[in-house]
Amino acid sequence: MRTAIAAGGAASGTRRDFENLVSYVVEAEKLGVDQVGTAEAWGLDAVSTLAYLAARTERMELITGIMQISARTPSMTAMTALSMAAISGDRFILGLGASGPQVVEGLQGQAFRKPMTRMREVIEIVRMACRGEKLEYQGEHYVLPRPGGQGKALRLSQPPAHVPIYLATLTPRGNELTGELADGWLGTSFTPECPEAHLEHLDRGLARAGRSRKDLTLVAGAALAFTDDPERLIQASKPAMAFTLGAMGSPTTNFYNDAFKRAGFEEDAVRVQKLWVDGKREEAAKAVPDEMIQQTTIFGDEAHVRGRIRKYRDAGINVLRVDPAGGDASQRLDTLGRAIEIIRQETSP
User: Fold this and answer.
1) Are 46 and 66 in contact (CB under 8 A)?
2) I want to staple 78 with a disulfide (CB 3.0 to 4.6 A). Which of 12, 126, 137, 190 is the partner?
3) pTM > 0.90
4) Quick one: average pLDDT of 275-302?
5) How many structural domains compose the chain?
6) Are both 153 and 289 inside the same structural domain?
7) Across residues 131-159, what is the average pLDDT?
8) Are residues 202 and 67 in the same domain?
9) Percent of the chain whose pLDDT exceeds 90
């Protein structure tokens, strides 16, 4: 099992915030972190931070987590991927996601229609471009060149390169597409107690393509803290979980909520979402069960941390994305260093 961290988030922050983030990532690489991923929601974009980190790091893989497919054309996505591969020394991984209707239709002004068909077409066009082929494509969402105009089929001037593609998918159909086409899966709302809520759908896609799990890198993450008082952290984590269950999507379309339903939390997920939508935010947070936080985090003493890491390992996770606790960067790095050492011990051959 390898390790990853996340960089960036919805809020853009200040120059000082960014400098602190870069310093944290540089030190994390020295500790042995294998991969850093960026977030993209409605603040920082996924690429700019990663391009800067490419110049400040030497070894770690750089992954967009995620580039929204409705925010860019497939050809621009390919150009960006090849540019990042070139400047990083082939350390770049293209992480893609469909996002959801509130962001796609509200922020990007695009229709959230058949997102997995769009995802398939984006992947096919990006791979054509990365192979150095002329971009001639007939799809439901994308037709290249545009018919009836003056455009002609072009190939990118950048030399061909292999760029791994990881997908951040949550729905059963999306996970099947990941198993069929992708090099890796960026898992969220994942619990090692119920891995099949996601993995059985990944397996269907793998089987359809004649592949197996060894052909797919599985990435999942958890907040991590060494503590003798996990109860305090469990309670502190509930407002964020309530936001995920209630606000990360519309009242009728929330892929995170649906994933937790499949993992055995159907009644809880429905209740928290209703409270949130009704404006009862504090009640929604209180309605989040302790067990949901316990299954999605790693809070406890060293023995507990070791046991949780084994659960992720035994569930088939290849890359554990760690969000270390701490009041400042130094404390977070101390937590991260302890976690990396345990991961090495527990997952070495």
Assistant:
1) yes
2) 126
3) yes
4) 98
5) 2
6) no
7) 97
8) yes
9) 90
